Amino acid sequence: MCKIFIIDDDPFFGEMLKYHLQLNPDYEVYLFDTAKACLSNLYLNPDIICIDFGLPDIQGDELFKKIHNIYPDLPIIIISGQEKIEVAINFLKEGAKDYIVKNEHSKELLWSSILRLRENISLRKEVEELKKELEKKYTFEKTIIGQSEGIKNIFSKINKAIKSNINVSITGETGTGKEVVAKAIHYNSAKKNKPFIAVNMAAIPKELVESEFFGHEKGAFTGATDRASGKFEQANGGTIFLDEIAELDLNIQSKLLRALQEREITRVGGNQKIKLDVRVITATHKNLAQEIKKGNFREDLYYRIVGLPIELPPLRDRDQDTLILAKHFIEMFSKENKIKALALSTDAKKKLLAYSFPGNVRELKSVIDLACVMSDTSEITAEDINFYAIEKDSESFLGEQKTLKQYTSDIILHFLKKNNHDVIKTAKVLDIGKSTIYNLINNVDLKKNQNN
């Protein structure tokens, strides 16, 4: 949401500008008829201010100086009935972003001016976010938590990736931390001082993907009132992270392939070729080899993006990492909420280790956050831990390739969870002996399987 202040003592003209700007649902417009009213509302943190030159209490140039001295980076547009060039030039020299003369074209000129300013604001915010990211120490052990063999293997792959500009393809189930790995690669590479641009394919309507990727020229299509740079252009010199790459439409896949092969792009509706120097990191929870067989993904694009493949292990295959991560998330929650860090009870640890976490690390964080809220003591108990698991249907369950022993273990584990780990009740429901359940609980195969 973009907050816009309009300061104009002409009620008709001010309301006209306000109405016109509010046609954009992203704009939150405030109208004031005096300079004093504007100054007393600066706590609302406007993104853009539009000042009328002639105001009843304070002249527009004086109001401009007051605001500009306090907030030198806040974009200010002057709207005036004066057509003198020297007045406009003086304002622009002082730091005004635009000078618009009051006439029948004012609202269209203001609309275009704000669009340009918003793009600059967006770029400035991206730079600020980049600086914040660079201030963090992207030490692997601090951003990718764990000590399992699977995670050590990931560290090894990341170390190889940061030594070159090879493309990287990250696969793994939802919630395993694919973007975290992508950032760890970027911010430890030679491109760390350049942009990191993340794009989620699943969140962009397919008819807008080309413009989102490559940008567009003014008039390229309905609504393209100004030139806009695309994500690849914004990422130039740095890294672009294409999340959920398997969701990309086949038509756009061919255009992406051409851009990667030729290392250049052309904005939609334009002719100018823009050279690319960008590292591509892709991620997906799908099996791209299977998607190629189904005809959903181009084989030639796959070989272009695969580069160094990194497969993230699910949380259930990471041994004691579940408890290490749980402790980390407890500390994070405690710090953010300014409370004393809680301990995990023995029963709570057992409950966490016995659960499969289909949502992986993302789900674990949600479970721990809730457990911290639910706890009434200095430690988290098993009763404080609640899971959000979505049950698998029988088709997906039977579609997994497991031994009969593993399926049996899964069934027993399911009913143990359903019966709140009551062995006697579970034995009665399944019509098996209690010793069978106790033996399986102590069996190494079940311990591995409990995390599946």
From TrEMBL:
Coiled coil: none annotated. It holds the Pfam family AAA_lid_14. The modification 4-aspartylphosphate is found at residue 52. It comes from the Bacteria. InterPro entries: AAA+_ATPase (IPR003593), AAA_lid_NorR (IPR058031), CheY-like_superfamily (IPR011006), Homeodomain-like_sf (IPR009057), P-loop_NTPase (IPR027417), Sig_transdc_resp-reg_receiver (IPR001789), Sigma_54_int (IPR002078), Sigma_54_int_dom_ATP-bd_2 (IPR025943). Residues 144-373 form the Sigma-54 factor interaction domain. The keyword Phosphoprotein applies. PANTHER family: SIGMA L-DEPENDENT TRANSCRIPTIONAL REGULATOR YQIR-RELATED (PTHR32071:SF121), TRANSCRIPTIONAL REGULATORY PROTEIN (PTHR32071). This is Regulator. It comes from Chryseobacterium aquaticum.
